[in-house]
Specification:
This protein is an alpha+beta fold. Helices cover 31% and strands 25% of the residues.
């Protein structure tokens, strides 16, 4: 419309040669789409659906020009990766923070909060996963009902997000680790079986050496290289409210990962 203001308010499409009746619709405005014109449709079909459709030829020079402008904008501000409709990653250059007038800590805090809203954490109980195909997990953070975990008969739970994509991050989302500890009434071990989920085990129920062996076997047999995250065991200390790496040689927790970004 920028280059054809005379067609404002008309059904408009970009396509091949309408006089020769060949070519397809490459794109169309909303007015044309409301009248049945579709991208990829043969021009004669588009004209049949919308007799007053205006067709203009494609301008590759303009396409390349605006594509280049968009790439510069996206490259300067952020980069998004998508798979099956899900956001997989985002990168922000540090020099952009000055233009945003935000600190790294503020951006980190906003990113964590937004992640929690866009892909909220969920508990997936094995018995439900096996018998209920449409089971979408339990909202243990916001459910007002008393969510009770039987620690004595507790074999571990699967923690992920509502999308179950990149769900291993769930344990680092605001309040999640402490909420799990309160439900278990205990500290717990974390086994990252892939980038998509983590297994949570109450500390008093398991031996860490057994978890390490099971974790290594599980990763070897069931985790693809692209989904692999780590083969280290982690521990959440309920009293200190911190996640740390478990060291099997010394049987102590020796690498701390604070939950709060300010720490």
């Amino acid at each position: 419309m920028l280059y054809h203001p005379e067609h404002a308010g008309k059904p408009l499409a970009v396509g091949g040669d309408p006089e020769a009746r060949h070519g397809i619709v490459l794109t169309a405005n909303y007015i044309a789409k409301q009248k049945g014109v579709k991208t990829g449709q043969a021009l004669w079909q588009a004209k049949s659906a919308c007799p007053d459709l205006v067709v203009v030829p494609p301008r590759m020079d303009l396409y390349l020009q605006f594509s280049s402008m968009l790439r510069e904008i996206y490259g300067e501000y952020l980069r998004l990766g998508r798979q099956d409709g899900c956001i997989s990653s985002m990168k922000i250059r540090k020099d952009i923070l000055k233009e945003w007038k935000l600190t790294e800590e503020e951006v980190w805090k906003n990113a964590v909060e937004n992640t929690s809203l866009m892909t909220p954490p969920r508990i997936y109980r094995w018995e439900e996963l096996l018998v209920t195909p449409l089971y979408s997990g339990d909202d243990f953070m916001n459910d007002e009902k008393l969510y009770f975990l039987d620690r004595e008969n507790f074999a571990g739970l699967c923690l992920s997000t509502a999308l179950r994509t990149n769900g291993a991050v769930a344990v680092f989302l605001p309040g999640v680790a402490q909420r799990l500890a309160d439900l278990l009434n205990d500290s717990f071990y974390i086994v990252f079986t892939s980038i998509h989920e983590a297994m949570i085990h109450a500390a008093q129920n398991v031996y860490p050496e057994d978890l390490i062996k099971v974790m290594h076997d599980s990763i070897k047999e069931a985790t693809s290289e692209q989904d692999f995250l780590t083969d280290k065991l982690y521990f959440y200390n309920r009293n200190e409210e911190k996640i740390a790496q478990y060291n099997p040689k010394t049987a102590i927790i020796d690498v701390h990962f604070p939950i709060n970004p300010e720490e």
